[in-house]
Amino acid sequence: MMNRDELQEQIVAILVDDFEFENPGLTDNLRDDHGFDSIDAIELLAKIEKMLGFQLAREEKEKAMSIRTINDILDYIEAIQASHKS
Amino acid sequence: MKRRVVITACSAITPIGYKRSDIIESLQQGRSGVKPLRDDGLLTQYIHSRVFGTVDYPIDYGFTRKDTKTMGPVAFYACQVAKDVLATSGLEQEFITSGRLGVSFSSTHGSPTVQRNIYKTFFSQLQSEFSSIGAVDYLKSMVHTTAVNITRMFGITGRVIASSTACTTSSQSIGFGYEMIKYGMQDAMICGGADEYDTTTVAVFDNLLACSVDYNDRPECTPRPFDARRDGLVVGEGAGAVLLEEYESAKARGADILGEVIGFACNNNGGDLILPNLDGITATLRLALADADISPQDVDFVSAHATATKMGDVIEAQAIDAVYGSKPLVTGLKSYMGHTMGSCGAIEMILTLYMMEQGFIAPTLNLESVDERCSMLNHVREITNTETRVAAIQNFAFGGVNTCLLVANDR
After folding, report:
1. B378 near B328, Cβ under 8 Å?
2. Residue B194's Cα: distance from chain center in Å?
3. Which residues of chain A have a CB within 8 Å of the CB of B129?
4. Residue of B194, B198, B197 lying closest to B149 (CA atoms)
5. Which domains can be identified in chain B, with CATH numbers?
6. Beta-strand relationship, B160-161 and B101-106
7. A contacts of B70 (beta carbons < 8 Å)
8. Is this prediction's ipTM beyond 0.90?
9. Is 3.40.50.720 the CATH classification of the domain at A4-85?
10. Domain boundaries, chain A
11. Which tens digits make up the pLDDT trace of B309-319?
């Protein structure tokens, strides 16, 4: 289980390398500031699954649709990790 | 309402070049773009034909991920030639997004590379926990992927036509775009077609014994349209786009007019889906002349479909003879690059425009000994310097679909 700093490092690297984000900030609006859309969200979920090493349930994926910032992504992954641990 | 329709920009990615000057040089020097078939790691080992009309030069697309995330290779080709025609057209951004510009563009079947990767996922990763099928694989492989990636990239809001009819895909695209403008539905249309490297198409034609196999060790010697030693078609890849505009507005804005589409016809044989049909093809050629309101004697050059299949070339020669006699020059341009499938009509239209502008007609490559059943035509056997006022571009597809486009040199 990764801590928040480790998660942040990996997520930012994915956003920069695979989604061509420039200078991502933790509170940036993903859509307005970086053009991140629903297609990107699905692609990111697939990468998060590989990063965590397990598949997400459909209802877990649907919760991701309310994500707006990188901080939201990190909150989301932490909650997923916690629920899979328990 | 009937309005005149002119061509004001064009671009083609072909096995014999991308830049206009490269393509003209290839035509003038008899340079073939047919190469050994690349291995796809899936089907090539089962295919007898080992030749392919290949685009093997780098292309500097310059697209960002925002553009490319919904694009397979076929959409890269399509968007590149669309980008070229918009860039050279001089059209204002306000017009491009006004709804008065539409897109008529398609391919044979979306992106087969993406489809192939989906199959690979299923066959090789059935036990894997994680699917490598992407969220956008449908957007990359659906049959209208080229048209809507073009609209997306440039913010085009007009009509979308994605006629996917195999070998007549892009001739229909141009023909239907021409009719959109002629009858006042749109003021301009980006028209064309694209097809990427694809072994499923080769495998299908190979299975029908329609592919060339005798020249696997000499790719540049095939296909051989109208030649006595032809042994079938060669599948290829490429893309072509033309910008069609209503004549008066094009003239008013000082656009460079490359030619005028003066006629188009499309019909169906109404029967067999594979066999070439003399009555159907002959009717198409006559319908196009009627649409243009010109006589057969007005046509100076025929760009024949001429895939180099055994019966297809003979039936086409009979149709040309029946409609035009031996007056017009006839060339099979697929002899240079193989059959680029969904893009062939657009590419052959663009090559014809280049030759009209340059004042020459290229010969049919590999036409060494004319099949006596095709010998009644005025075949171009060497570079012929001549003024072409009106040219016919004819294409025929599986499914019994026939098209003929007539283009006049307005320069």
Report:
1. yes
2. 7
3. 54-55
4. B194
5. 5-408 (3.40.47.10)
6. parallel
7. 39
8. no
9. no
10. 4-85
11. 999 999 999 99
